[in-house]
Design brief:
Blueprint (H helix, E strand, L loop, with lengths): L2 H5 L1 H6 L1 H18 L1 H14 L5 H50 L2 H6 L2 H43 L2 H7 L3 H38 L1 H6 L3 H53 L5 H13 L1 H28 L20 E8 L9 E8 L4 E6 L5 H9 L9 E3 L2 E2 L5 H7 E4 L10 H6 L7 H10 L3 H5 L18 H13 L5 E5 L7 H14 L4 E5 L11 E6 L2 E6 L1 H7 L2 H24 L2
Parallel strand pairs: 3-8, 3-9, 6-7, 7-8
Antiparallel strand pairs: 1-2, 1-4, 4-5, 9-10
Protein name: ATP-binding cassette, subfamily B
GO molecular function: ABC-type oligopeptide transporter activity; ATP binding; ATP hydrolysis activity
Keywords: ATP-binding, Cell membrane, Membrane, Nucleotide-binding, Transmembrane, Transmembrane helix, Transport
């Protein structure tokens, strides 16, 4: 049960002063809170024996008032220290969790659902917050407070009566342990179900257009209802055990009450204790209800916290499969990029996605990559991004193996526009400046012109301050692509990767953007993957991929002379373009 505290020992060591003060003050308050019942017992005995005077009455009232004020002030202080620490660990864990996710490679996200990752960042972290706050409180109250009451009952009243009254409690402790084990198991299942439900909600929201287009709203609602029922049932199973704690505790404390009253009355008749001592004893028994309830809550909170900590630690224990090596080298400027017989397969696949890739791109050159869908174009780009591990000494930059270059430095050179553009739910300005937050206003509008997005933005009511909505939902595919290109260009990267980044724009706009990029990026390396041959026609080197292998290479002119797949596709696309142009002329002719 208390293993969660051991797992959080790193935090308690960092904030030991805060928790030492809180626990010490809790101990003081626990001691002060058992004084009033003893004073009340003395007061009753003095009344019963006729020895109470006005001065003694004022003394008792004054002592009670002082105790109330002191307990109030100390309680305020320990609560601020203890629950302040709980908020700190919540913030610390969330920050650590987010930092860990930012270091993860695609392999990690392929194995973990987004909904479950969100559940860990919310529900699981909150459960640990309760452990560090309410859990520590109940731990102290169920041990120190209970121990102090036990001493008061034993020393100041009667050890015989105390022993008799405590006979049912060992049985209760054993039952509480059983409840705790069941709670841990069921809470783990409930949290996992909540994560699956989160993932379903995210998928439904992201794919709401597709769901509506196929008229699958009812099916999606039914699927979601099934998942919510599963979450409900698993949480009810947790609640069933949780609801047994308090009745069980009250049952055994009630048994202690009966024993205390019965055996206590007998001891009064035998003149072994006074009436005031019996009253004090029964008040102490009443005060035992909270420590007993706290003990039950302690089992519950600790088991929930332990289950959540196990889930978080499982995520924290995952090491990224791409990390900086031990023998790093400094490269000031990325010059030639050399692939030397590179072969790559995804971790989840047995077949090679790239085979024997061998080519060299000098600094300042433009590389064009074309091929059928699934031929390996995107996979080739990912090698330069180091999103997946690869064998040593197969990819070099400036003659240095890529695994010997620090990841931060490598990524600082690259501007990347992926196939699936992602825009943040902010303004157009903020999305473009994401590439370089401190960019000047002139640079901002310059890259917008290069990406041919300025004219579109001017048609928006709020211009560049227009909110794009979640994932750019308010923009067209072509607009999102061009904003993504502007975001990459404002970084002015040494290496620009355009992975089919012009597929949603028309041929005329594509030609304009390509021309602008060529003029803007003289002396810097550009990689372009495309399905339209016109996007790579100007490239210094063009690679044709098929099934992960280079089947053709050369300039546009060289590839046309080879009369292979590239020549066939280029000719076909040109003929299609001519036919479309003639059709437009025919329609526009009066």
């Amino acid at each position: 049960m208390f293993s969660v505290l051991r797992k959080l020992s790193w935090f308690f060591k960092q904030h030991w002063k805060r928790y030492t003060i809180a626990i010490f003050l809790l101990f003081i308050v626990s001691f002060l809170e058992v004084m009033p019942p003893r004073l009340l017992g003395v007061f009753i005995d003095e009344v019963h024996q006729g020895r109470l005077t006005t001065e003694r009455l004022q003394f008792f009232i004054g002592i009670f008032l002082v105790l109330m004020v002191v307990i109030y002030l100390i309680t305020f202080t320990w609560m601020r220290q203890l629950f302040g620490g709980a908020y700190i660990i919540e913030r610390t864990l969330r920050s650590k969790y987010m930092s860990h996710l930012m270091k993860m490679t695609p392999t990690f996200f392929e194995k973990n659902k987004t909904g479950d990752l969100m559940a860990k960042a919310t529900n699981d972290v909150k459960a640990i917050y309760f452990t560090a706050g309410f859990g520590v409180l109940t731990l102290v109250d169920s041990t120190i407070f209970l121990f102090i009451i036990l001493i008061m009952m034993t020393v100041l009243v009667s050890w015989k009566l105390t022993l008799a009254a405590f006979l049912p409690l060992p049985i209760m402790a054993w039952i509480m342990k059983r409840y705790g084990s069941i709670i841990h198991e069921r809470f783990m299942k409930a949290q996992a179900a909540f994560g699956d439900m989160n993932d379903q909600v995210l998928e439904s929201i992201a794919g709401v257009r597709v769901i509506r287009a196929f008229v699958k709203e009812k099916d999606d609602e039914k699927r979601f209802e099934t998942m919510t029922d599963d979450v409900l049932n698993k949480n009810i199973s947790v609640a069933k055990i949780d609801s047994l704690f308090e009745p069980t505790i009250k049952l055994f404390v009630g048994m202690s009450y009966m024993i205390g009253l019965g055996f206590g009355a007998y001891l009064v008749f035998q003149n072994e204790i006074t009436l005031g001592q019996l009253v004090s004893f029964n008040i102490y028994l009443g005060m035992l209800i909270w420590p007993m309830l706290a003990f039950g809550e302690l089992m519950n909170v600790m088991q929930r916290g332990n289950a959540s900590m196990d889930r978080l630690n499982k995520t924290f224990s995952y090491k990224p499969d791409v990390e900086d090596g031990s023998a790093l080298q400094t490269v000031n400027v990325p010059e030639a990029v050399d692939f030397k017989q590179l072969t790559f397969r995804y971790p989840s696949s047995e077949d090679a996605a790239l085979s024997n890739i061998d080519f060299s791109i000098p600094q300042g050159a433009t590389l064009g990559v074309v091929g059928k869908t699934g031929s390996g174009k995107t996979t080739l780009f990912k090698q330069l991004l180091r999103q997946y591990p690869l064998e040593e000494k197969q990819l070099f930059i400036s003659g240095v193996p890529i695994e010997a270059i620090p990841l931060a430095q490598l990524k600082s050179w690259i501007g990347y526009v992926p196939q699936d553009q992602f825009l943040f739910s902010q303004t157009i300005r903020e999305n473009i400046l994401f590439g370089k937050p401190d960019a000047e206003e002139y640079d901002l509008y310059r890259v917008m012109d290069i990406a041919s997005i300025t004219a579109d933005i001017e048609t928006f009511a709020n211009g560049i301050e227009t909110l794009v909505g979640e994932k750019g939902v308010s923009l067209s595919g072509g607009q999102k692509q061009r904003i993504s290109i502007a975001r990459a260009l404002i970084k002015n990267p040494e290496i620009l990767l355009l992975d089919d980044a012009l597929s949603a724009v028309d041929a005329k706009t594509e030609a304009f953007i390509v021309k602008n990029i060529r003029e803007e990026r003289k002396g810097k390396t550009t990689w372009i993957a495309a399905h339209r041959m016109s996007a790579v026609r100007h490239a210094d080197i063009i690679l044709v991929l098929d099934n992960g292998q280079i089947v053709e290479r050369g300039t546009h002119e060289e590839l046309m002379r080879q009369n292979g797949w590239y020549c066939e596709q280029y000719t076909k696309q040109q003929m299609d373009a001519d036919e479309q142009e003639n059709a437009v002329k025919e329609v526009s002719r009066p």
